[in-house]
Amino acid sequence: MQLISTVFYFLIALMILVAIHEFGHFYVARRCGVRVLRFSIGFGNRLFSWRDKQGTEYAISAIPLGGYVKMLDEREGEVAPEDLPYTYNHKSPPQRIAIAMAGPLANLILAFTLYWVFFFLRGGVTLAPVIGAVDAGSIAAAAGLEKGQEIVAVDGRAVHSRRDVELMLLNRVGETGQITFVVTYPGSDLQYESRANINGWMQDVVAPDLVKGVGIRFFEPKIETEIGTVEPESAAARAGFKEGDRILEADGVAMEDGRQWIDYVRAHPAEEIRVLVARDNGQEELFLTPGVKKDSAGIEYGFAGVSLPQVDSWPEEMVRFQHYGPLDSAVKAAQETRDVVTMVLLSVKKLVVGEISTKNLSGPIGIAKVAGDSAKAGIWAFVNFLAYISVLLGVFNLLPIPVLDGGHIVYGLIEWVKGSPVSEKVQVWGYQVGMALILGLMAIAFYHDIMRL
User: Fold this and answer.
1) Residue 22 falls in the annotated catalytic set
2) Planar angle of CA 15, 19, 25, nearest 5 degrees
3) Alpha carbon 38 to its chain's center
4) Are the C-beta atoms of 263 and 280 separated by less than 8 Å?
5) Which residue among 22, 150, 336, 355 is the active-site one?
6) pTM given for the model
7) 138: how many CB neighbours lie within 10 A of its CB?
8) Average confidence (pLDDT) over 404-413
C-alpha cells in the first residue's frame, strides 16, 4: 500500500511539473507564431487525445515520465512552402531563445506561486536557532559555542531560524578555511563572534546533517524517559518492555533524557543493547535488539517501538509565528524561490568541483519516496516539496548542456552573436556529449537510489 501511495504522489507531482514546463514552451511558441503540432503529457502510445481549432493535438501518453511539445520544424520532416513562416527553425534566434527559456521560467513561476499560497494561507512558523548542546571536540566546540546561546549570524550573514543556519552551513560543505559564528544569549543585547577552522568539511558524507556535522544540537523540549506505550510485536515488546518502565541506563550509560535514549537506539540498529529500567519500585535488566529502518538517504537506523511523552512545551520566545498579507507573501515567496535557486546552483557547483559526493544524487526513486513522505506529512509539506522540485527542474533545464533547454539557449545565443547557426556537425556532437552526460548522471542517481532501498 505504501508503494502504491508513493508512486501515486510521485506521478501527480511529475504530471503537474511537466504540464507547467511544457505549457511554458507551448505558450511562447504560439506567441512567436510557431505552429504547435502536439502537446503531450507522457511519452509513447497516446492513450487519448483531442485537437483544438488551430490543429494542435493534446495527448495523454502511456509512459508518464515526462512530456513534450512538438513544433513544426523543417529539420524533422518536409514542410509545405506556405507553412515555412510557421516553423520553429525559421524563427529568429531571440524567438527560439525565448521558447527554450519559457519552460524553465514556467517552473520558477510555479514555485513562486506555490510559495505565495503557502505564506499567504498558512504563514510562517520558525524555531529560534538556540543551542541545546555542543558536542565535545566538534567545530562548534572549537569556536567556543555554548548551550543556551542563540546563533544570530553565520559567516557575516544574519540568520533568524534553524533553516537559515542550515542554508548558511550548506555554503561551506566541502570547503577549507574558517567558519564564523555570531551568537547572543536570549534576552541580552550583547553579541559574541567566534571562529573555527574547517578542512574539506562533510565532503564525502552522504546526505549530511549539517547542524550535527558542525557539532550542534538545537534546543528541544525535554522528553521523559518513562515509556508511554509499547507497540505490539516490536523490538521493545520482544525484549520485555512494559508501559510505565523508566529507562535508567543503556549499556551502562545513564539516560538522563528521552532524546538521549532515542539517539542511542537510532545509533545501534540490530545491535543488542543492555537496558536497565526502573519498574515496580525495583530495577529490571532487559536486552533490546533494535529493529532496522532506512532514512531517505538509505542510511540504516535503529528503532525500538516505544513512545516517550514530551513533558515540556516549546518556550514562547523560541516559536516565532509570522502572518503575511498578499504583498508580504509575494516578497517572501520571491526570497524563498531565490534562496532555493541559489542552493541548487551551489549544490551543482560543489558536485562539479568535487566538494559534494555524487552519492547525494537522487533519481526518480528517491524523489518518489520524498513525494510520498511529504504527502503523508500533510498538504503544506507536499506544496513545499512541489515548489522545491519545480525550482530544481527549472534550474536543471537551464544548465548549458545540449539536449537541455540551456543547450538550445546557448546555440541560439551563438547564432545571434555570429549571425549564422552553429554547424550541424558541432550541434550533433554537442547533443551526443550532452546525452551521454545526462544518461551518466541518471545512471549514478539510479544506482544510489537502489542502494538506499
Assistant:
1) yes
2) 150
3) 32
4) no
5) 22
6) 0.77
7) 16
8) 92
